[in-house]
Write a structure and sequence with these properties.
The chain is of the alpha/beta class. About 40% of the residues lie in helices and about 25% in strands. It contains 11 helices and 11 strands. The protein has helices spanning about 50-55, 85-95, 100-105, 110-125, 130-140, 145-150, 160-170, 190-205, 220, 240-245, 250-259, and strands at about 5-20, 20-35, 40-45, 65-70, 70-75, 75-80, 95-100, 180, 210-215, 225-230, 235-240. Strands 7-8-9-3-10-11 form a 6-stranded mixed sheet, sandwiched between helices. Strands 1, 2, 4, 5 and 6 form a 5-stranded antiparallel sheet that branches. Helix 8 links the parallel strand 8 (about 180) and strand 9 (about 210-215). The longest helix has 18 residues, at about 190-205. It is globular and about 50 Å long. The termini are far apart. Bound molecules: adenosine-5'-triphosphate and magnesium ion.
Length: about 260
Amino acid sequence: MNKTPLLAVKNLHVSFRNEEGWLHAVQDASFSLAHGQTLGIVGESGSGKSVTSLAIMQLLAKNQSRVEATNIELEGQSLLHCSGEKLRQLRGNRMAMIFQEPMSSLNPVFRCGMQVEEAILAHEKISRKMAKKRVLALFEKVKLPHPENMYHAYPHQLSGGQKQRVMIAMAISCNPALLIADEPTTALDVTVQQNILELLQELQQQYGMGMIFITHDLAVINGLADKVAVMQKGKIVEQGPVKEVLQNPQHPYTQGLLA
Ligand SMILES: Nc1ncnc2c1ncn2[C@@H]1O[C@H](COP(=O)(O)OP(=O)(O)OP(=O)(O)O)[C@@H](O)[C@H]1O
Ligand SMILES: [Mg+2]
């Protein structure tokens, strides 16, 4: 049995410099995630959900933000003191993120297939031909219709749900141990949302990934996550196994979300 957690975050603080001084976006957040588990993070807009995930991925610009923590460990390895090169290796290979806005991560001037292919080639020494094969297999896996056409399409030619599937393909392309999905379905209509959630669940089981799933919607967490952390104004106000928290919420804010 592997006892080292997949991810351990201890006393995470993130602040941003603004005109008045420092804005404390995340304050003293601690949580952990076992291999293959799903942690749901819920909370209102601005509560610090995205900033928490960006801090884990070490993607916050150093000149504008201050990230402090006792620890951020992925598979027992501290991410806080990693070199840029090491982080680039880990991002993609061991941890990947699906961003809130697919269009901010897909480049409009490159074909979808090429973008996923480049992501694979950045991490693996394989031929372009092999990489393309992998992309087509991934597009199949995320249930994009006509993978060959999708490979050649530009992002603007795809629907919102299809773009999100390309993003998911890119995120899982190097088999990460941890996948962070930041509100991957908010921009989509309800039936497409449901399909994407089912896809993520299916992939998670197939790949044995741990997942952090961020949402406004506590109902989405139910059935998807093992554990939940509720954030309000930069703090985790309550966390625990999903069933316990949903059946017996302790914090007034969680009670309000459920009501
Ligand atoms: N790069 C940044 N510079 C300055 N402040 C930032 C930056 N990114 C986020 N913030 C601030 O940090 C706080 C938390 O933002 P965050 O994006 O984590 O919220 P969120 O919970 O993801 O909200 P939403 O549900 O709307 O996505 C907000 O007050 C936001 O304005
Ligand atoms: Mg966000």
